[in-house]
Amino acid sequence: MDFSKVMQERRSVKKYDQNVKMTKEKIEKIIEIASLSPSAWNLQQWHFLIVTDEDKKQLLQRCAWNQPKVSEASASIVVLGDLLAYERAGEVAEEWAQKSYVPSDGKKGLIDSIYNFYEDIQTQRDEAIRGASLAAMSLMLTAKDMGYATCPMIGFDPEAIRKEFSIPDRYVPALMITLGKGEETRERASRRSPKEIITYETF
């Protein structure tokens, strides 16, 4: 599908065909493409908790204010941000040296730069949320391109999800996405015009 058409036709779908079960291969293909999203130093701060088991979806629904779409969709995905993604700095430096992005003797400097940048806890959280959100948008657009519907969600209890699904402390739940077959037939809500949301140079 043409990209502009994907953008224009993507909607937040709240009702899904419960008879449609997506294969693991289809879901993983969407994730694979979404993982091409950008991230600082290519640290790829995202991780995806994919819930397709019916009992587990019911459990997740209870953590999400009992919203029906969580269990009705083929899959419900908790998009997680990795607070400790910077610990992969060594892997990044090694690959960058192999690809001549940095000289071999520049690896230590790169690693030090990454660790210094992520020294602040707030920065770790900001980057985790930022990276996860970039990947989440890519996931939704990829799904639309492949003929599937999605809906981003912030209506959930992150600590309940952490507890019920044994999420390690290094991950922060950024948002949820429902995924499956469905459509939104209501007229799209209006969007603010460019002149309302653009400021050139400075305020």
Automatic annotation (TrEMBL):
Statement: the UniProt record of this protein carries the keyword Oxidoreductase: yes
Nitroreductase domain residues: 8-181
Top-level EC class: oxidoreductase
This protein's record includes keyword Chaperone: no
Gene Ontology MF terms in the entry: oxidoreductase activity
Alphabetically ordered keywords of this record: Oxidoreductase
Matching InterPro entries: Nitroreductase (IPR029479), Nitroreductase-like (IPR000415)
Enzyme Commission code: 1.7.1.-
Family, per entry: Belongs to the nitroreductase family.
Name of the protein in its database record: Nitroreductase family protein
